[in-house]
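Slide 14.
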Amino acid sequence: MNSISFYIVPCMMVIIITFGIAKKIDVFDSFISGAKEGVHSTFSIVPSIIGLITAVSMLKASGFLDIFSSFLSLLFKHLGIPTPIIPLMILRPISGSGSLALLDSILSNFGPDSFAGRVASVLMGSTETTFYAVTVYLGSVNIKNSRHAIPAALLADLSSFILSCIFVRMLFYGT
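Slide 15: predicted structure.
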C-alpha cells in the first residue's frame, strides 16, 4: 500500500499531460494561466487574512476567550457538555491553528480516551474554521456581502458542537 501512494502523484501528472496532448491542449500554457490565477487569488485575499489573524490574536491576548468560556460553562454544564471543550467550541470557527493547540492541550491534560478528549476529537473533525473559509472563498471572488453564508455556517458549527457530545456519549458510554 505504501508503494501505491508513492506513485499516485507522478501517475496523475502523466495522465493529465497525456490527456492534454490527446485533446490538443497546450498543457504548459494552461498550467501557466492557472498559476497566474492562483497568484492573483492569493494576493486578493491577503488583506482579509491579515485582518482575521489580527482579530484572533487580539481575542486570545485580551483574555476574552477565558472570560466567555467561564460564563458559558455554567450553561453547558447542565447540557452535559464538558467544560474543557468550551474554549475549543468558541475558537474553532475562528482559528484552525488556535483550535489545534487547544485540542493538543485537552488531549494532553485529559487523555485521548476521556470524554473530553473524544468529544474534542469528533468536534475537530466535524467542524470548519468558518470565518477563515468564508474569508478565503468569498474574498477570492470579491464578494463583499456574505448574506446568509456566515449564519448558516455558524449554525452548522453549533449543531456539530452539540451532536459531537451526544454521539460520543451514545457510542462510547451507552447513554
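Speaker note: Residues 44-173 form one domain.
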